[in-house]
Write a structure and sequence with these properties.
With 349 residues, this protein is an alpha/beta fold. It has one domain. 58% of the residues lie in helices and 7% in strands. The chain contains 16 helices and 7 strands. Strands 3, 4, 5, 6 and 7 form a 5-stranded mixed β-sheet that branches. A two-stranded parallel ribbon has the order 1-2. Strand 4 and strand 5 form a beta hairpin. Helix 3 runs antiparallel to helix 4 and helix 10 crosses helix 11. Its EC number is 1.14.19.-.
Length: 349
Amino acid sequence: MKDLHSFGWYAARITPHLSKNLFKPVPARLWGGFAYLLVVVAGFMGIGYFDLHIVFNILIAGIIGASFAAMGFLGHEILHGTVVKTAWLRNFLGAVAFWPLSTGPRLWRKWHNMNHHVNTQHEEKDPDAWPNLEKLVQNSFLRVIYRMPFGLRAFFGFVSLSIQFTMHGLKMFFEYIKDFNPRNRPAVLLQTILPWSSWIGLLFWIGPVKWLFAFFIPLLIANFIVMSYISTNHRLNPLTPVNDPLANSLTVTVPKWVDVLHFNFSYHTEHHLFPSMSPKHYPLVKQHIKKMWPERYHEMKMSKAMKALWNTPRVYFKDNELIDPYKEARFGTLGNGLDKEKKTYKKSV
């Protein structure tokens, strides 16, 4: 990997072409979040107060789950300061938006804003980076997983998307709680406990069967939607010693109506260049990136990116390749052999 540049290097060259108004917060985005909140509450009430047919319960669960995911996308936006700037209001709104995913605003800003964004795809410092072969050898659990045949492993990998965000969030809590100032740790703990307490309270209110449809199934759906984006954001890209968003990030393309529902979360390379800009303006940023560095920019249809995830392993070999330890087959990453158009994945054995 040669000629890598930091996100600041790219941002400095695009910013002169952008209006200063694009960097102002956009509080109108909250109306979308309010609409999702009303949908969730209405879903809870419908399931809780009425003995509906299972078909209707499943349908409502799907709608609640999709709303959970969308609220998480808005929470991500809020906690980057692109919706409101006042700190206490930003944290409060971020907490509400992330409530379904049970992630507190202090933990999220530490884990995501400070560590992931600053150290994206760094094999040691990025909390979201997948392991290299050396780490796999040292981890007995991962060694067992990677002895499974490739197809079976891919299947379980996709199924696990339905729990990965929740499990990783809990891991991040135990990973980072010690890094907070002792005076702030009670707040971080409270922000983690309160959402889960409310969901347990919901269980006692409506009973276990209705709770499955009101919260548990929606949580699985929300996890899958959120992790489908997060998985395609970076997991097809190489590990990079320099935080170069054009090398280590992928923008996926989805229908316009999906971008509207998901607050433009698909524009991920753009987000890593300008995390403090509202995603509302990312289509404009994308135009400038493609004009200035068309050969470096990575974008792919969501369906193709998910297919590429299915067909490649998640263990890195020498940063810019992926390796399947089961058969010792190596696969290219984006910019290093993974061809987005020809759909070729395997590089060598």
